[in-house]
C-alpha cells in the first residue's frame, strides 16, 4: 500500500479535479440567461496604426461578473458556451451591443474614416446559414454604416465548413464589413484555402509577440507571417504588444496595426471614449500617452 503522504497527495489531486469539474458545471449552468440578468458587458481595446499611431478601431471583448463567482475569464467561459450552444444567444447580444456602441460613437471627433469595432465571432455563430443576413439586418435596424463593424473569426471557424464560411464572408465583404482571422498561426488553416477566402486582415497571435525580444525564431516567424499575409493581400494586426521594443520590431517588418497593453488595456465604453479623446497621434517621442504613462 502507499505510504501515508503519497495517499494524501493522490486524494488532494482528485479533490482538485473534482472541484474544477464542479466549477465548470456551475459556470455552464450560470451562463444561460447571464446577459438578460445584466451580468455581462463589453470592454473595448484600441487598435492603432503602427506608423502614425492613429486610432483605427477597437476590439470588443466580453466581460462577465457573476454575483457569487465574481469575474470569470472569457478564456474559460467562451469554450463552455460554445460546447453548450449558449454562445449563439450570447454572440447575438455581443453583436447587438457592439452595433449600439458604434451608433453612439459614430459622430465623435476621434472616429476616423476607417474606424471600426471588431467583434469576435465564434465558430458556431459563423456556422449558421443566416449569420451574415442577421448581422446586416441588425445594422440596418440601428442605421449603422457597415464600415463601422468588422468581425474576427478563428481558423477553426473557417475550416469547419469552408463552403458555408465562404458564403457568409462573401456577403459581409460585399456589404463592406471586413473580416480578420484571429490568433493566426495557432490553428490549422490551409494556405490553399486562405488564398481563396475573402479575408482582409490577419491577426498575429500574442504567442508570437510575447518573446520577440529574446527569440530569434519568434522574430523570424513574425516576419514570415507578415510576408505571408501581404502575399495574400491582407493587412496585419499584432496583438498582445506590451513593450516599445516589440512595437518597433513589428513596425520594422511592415506590420500595419497594433493592439496591446503597451497602448491600453481593454476599457469600459466611457473610459475608451475618454482615452480616444485624449490620444495624440505621434504625441511626443515614442508612444507617450498621458493616461497610460502619466
Ligand atoms: P482574442 O480575440 O485573441 O482577444 C485578445 C485577448 O488578448 C483578450 O483577452 C485581450 O484582453 C488580451 N490582450 C490584449 N492585449 C494584451 C496584452 O498586451 N497582453 C496580454 N497578456 N493580453 C492581452 P480576453 O478579453 O481575456 O479574451 C480572451 C479570448 O476570449 C479572446 O481572444 C476571444 O477568443 C474570446 N472572446 C472574448 N470576447 C469574446 C466575444 O465576445 N465572443 C467570442 N466568441 N469570443 C470572445
Ligand atoms: Mg479577437
Ligand atoms: Mg486574437
Ligand atoms: Mg489571441
From TrEMBL:
Q: What protein am I looking at?
A: EAL domain-containing protein
Q: Which residues of the full protein are shown?
A: 295 to 588 of 590
Organism name: Vreelandella salicampi
Domain EAL residue range list? 24-280
Amino acid at each position: 500500500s502507499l505510504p501515508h503522504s503519497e495517499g494524501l497527495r493522490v486524494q488532494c489531486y482528485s479533490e482538485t479535479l473534482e472541484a474544477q469539474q464542479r466549477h465548470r458545471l456551475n459556470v455552464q449552468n450560470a451562463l444561460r440567461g447571464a446577459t438578460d440578468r445584466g451580468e455581462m458587458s463589453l470592454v473595448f481595446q484600441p487598435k492603432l496604426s503602427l506608423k502614425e499611431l492613429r486610432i483605427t478601431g477597437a476590439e470588443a471583448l466580453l466581460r462577465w461578473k457573476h454575483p457569487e463567482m465574481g469575474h470569470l475569464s472569457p478564456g474559460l467561459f467562451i469554450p463552455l458556451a460554445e460546447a453548450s450552444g449558449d454562445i449563439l444567444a450570447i454572440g447575438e447580444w455581443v453583436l447587438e451591443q457592439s452595433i449600439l456602441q458604434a451608433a453612439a460613437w459614430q459622430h465623435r471627433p476621434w472616429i476616423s474614416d476607417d474606424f471600426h469595432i471588431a467583434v469576435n465571432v465564434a465558430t458556431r455563430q459563423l456556422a449558421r446559414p443566416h449569420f451574415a443576413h442577421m448581422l446586416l439586418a441588425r445594422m440596418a435596424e440601428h442605421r449603422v454604416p457597415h464600415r463601422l463593424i468588422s468581425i474576427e473569426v478563428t481558423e477553426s471557424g473557417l475550416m469547419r465548413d469552408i463552403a458555408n464560411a465562404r458564403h457568409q464572408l462573401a456577403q459581409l465583404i460585399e456589404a463592406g464589413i471586413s473580416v480578420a482571422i484571429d490568433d493566426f498561426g495557432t490553428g490549422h488553416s490551409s494556405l490553399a484555402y486562405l488564398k481563396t477566402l475573402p479575408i482582409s486582415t490577419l491577426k498575429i497571435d500574442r504567442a508570437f509577440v510575447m518573446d520577440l525580444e529574446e527569440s530569434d525564431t519568434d522574430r523570424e516567424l513574425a516576419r514570415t507571417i507578415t510576408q505571408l499575409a501581404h502575399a495574400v493581400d491582407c493587412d496585419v494586426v499584432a496583438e498582445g504588444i506590451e513593450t516599445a521594443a516589440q512595437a518597433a520590431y513589428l513596425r520594422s517588418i511592415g506590420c500595419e496595426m497594433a493592439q496591446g497593453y503597451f497602448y491600453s488595456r481593454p476599457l469600459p465604453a466611457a473610459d475608451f471614449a475618454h482615452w480616444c479623446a485624449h490620444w495624440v497621434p505621434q504625441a511626443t517621442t515614442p508612444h507617450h500617452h498621458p493616461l497610460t504613462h502619466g
